[in-house]
Every structure is written in C-alpha cells, then in structure tokens.
C-alpha cells in the first residue's frame, strides 16, 4: 500500500532562511511521481514541484528544490530564502504510475510559519 | 488564463438536505478529479473522470455521493441526504497528458448543521 509520511506538523523559520520540509514515502510500484503542493489559508492547493522516480536529477523550480533520495524513499522540499508569503500548509504527495495512474495520495501536511 | 473554478465556495446546509457542487476544469484538460479534505488532513481521492467517463471511484464515495461529467467539460458532485460527517472541503482538480500534473480549484467548503 502506498503511504506518504510528513513527520513535522509545524515549523517556524526566520524570514530569508532556507527551510527543509521532510517527506518519506512507501510504494512497491517501480514507477511513481512525487509532488509538493502549497495550501495557503484561502484553501487552494497550489502545485509547486514534481519529481519522477526515474529522473536522474533533483527537480528545481525557482526557490523550490526537491531533495530526492530514492534509496531512502525520501523527497524533501527545500525552500531557499524564505518569504513571509511562504507561510502555508505544505503537502507531499505521490502517484503510482502503474497501479493507479489517476489518484494522488497526500501526506498529512506541514504547517510552515515564517517569522519576520 | 483561467484555472480550475468551483462553485459555490461555501455551502451551509441542514442534515438530510441534498447539495450539488460544480467544477469547471482548465479548458484543455481531459481529466478531472474530486477530492475531500477534512480539517488537519491532506486531501483524499474520491473519483476521477477521463473525458465523460468515470474511471475510478474511491470506497469513500458512498451511495449518497454521485459525480457526473456529462459532456466531458464541467463536473458536478452531488451529496444526497447530507450527514454531519460530510462537512469538509471538496476539491476539484484537472490535468492533461503528458505530465498529468493535477491543478486544483479553490474548493467548496461544506458545513452540515
């Protein structure tokens, strides 16, 4: 069974510092995709970054990078130079490409708060 | 550029009433998904459409829930005989090949009194 674990329910970070949000996953599917979404208090889920299981390099999108360690089954999100607007819930998610190419399984999320 | 839209944004209803939510996906997206999110949790998959065909349904989708996408464009999610446990945020997402990255709408927050 696929599973996403986010062990940090909440984090406080000083503005302009880098922050790492942890995510581990479990799957027996050889092909899968990993996602990070941001959910501000308004409720909308905003797509941030994607990593495919066969991708050789870690994904990067602007200030976001995904630290993908396949052997450890971890997919941590790194946000560089944090900003006040980064305060939100962050969800790690996974899609298994063979067994269920449709649905995404989400973790329980990490609430990130940026201090000025 | 129009993203995924959902209507209404908020719905308050009494237990036992029926409610219907609408989702308009990104126009060129042929896949549409419904999720439910309760407080403090991540979204949970409910159902998925490719064009007008409903291809997968979660066991969370009891017989009181029905979803349609009649013309392969917008979708509706109906909950009959609502219960207090149905109170949640209902999120819609859409995607298209090849990336199939799912883009979410703002959600409909349902409160059942």
**What is the approximate shape of chain A?**
globular
Strand content of chain A: over 45%
Compute the average pLDDT of chain B: 93
Share of helical residues of chain A: under 10%
The tally of beta strands of chain B, per DSSP, is 11
Largest interface: A-B, 23 and 25 residues
Structural class of chain A: mainly beta
Strand percentage of chain B lies at over 45%
What's the total helix number of chain B? 0
Q: In angstroms, what is the radius of gyration of chain B? A: 13 Å
Largest sheet of chain A: 6 strands, mixed
Please describe the topology of this protein.
The complex is a heterodimer of chains A (116) and B (113).
Chain A: E1 3-5, E2 10-14, E3 19-21, E4 24-26, E5 32-39, E6 46-52, E7 60-61, E8 64-69, E9 74-79, E10 88-96, E11 100-106, E12 110-115
Parallel strand pairs in A: 2-12
Antiparallel strand pairs in A: 1-4, 3-9, 5-6, 5-10, 7-8, 8-9, 10-11, 10-12
Chain B: E1 5-7, E2 10-13, E3 19-24, E4 31-37, E5 44-50, E6 53-57, E7 65-68, E8 75-79, E9 88-95, E10 103-104, E11 108-112
Parallel strand pairs in B: 2-11
Antiparallel strand pairs in B: 1-3, 3-8, 4-5, 4-9, 5-6, 7-8, 9-10, 9-11
Tell me briefly what this model is:
Chain A has 116 residues and is mainly β. Chain A has strands at 3-5, 10-14, 19-21, 24-26, 32-39, 46-52, 60-61, 64-69, 74-79, 88-96, 100-106, 110-115. The model of chain A has no long low-confidence stretch (mean pLDDT 93).
Structural summary, described in words:
The complex is a heterodimer of chains A (116) and B (113). Chain A is mostly beta strands. Helices cover 0% and strands 56% of the residues of chain A. Chain A is globular, with a radius of gyration of 14 Å. The N and C termini of chain A lie far apart (41 Å). Chain B has strands at residues 5-7, 10-13, 19-24, 31-37, 44-50, 53-57, 65-68, 75-79, 88-95, 103-104, 108-112. In chain B, the strands form two sheets. In chain B, strands 2, 4, 5, 6, 9, 10 and 11 form a seven-stranded mixed beta sheet that branches. In chain B, strands 1-3-8-7 form a four-stranded antiparallel beta sheet, with no helix packed on it. Chain B is globular.
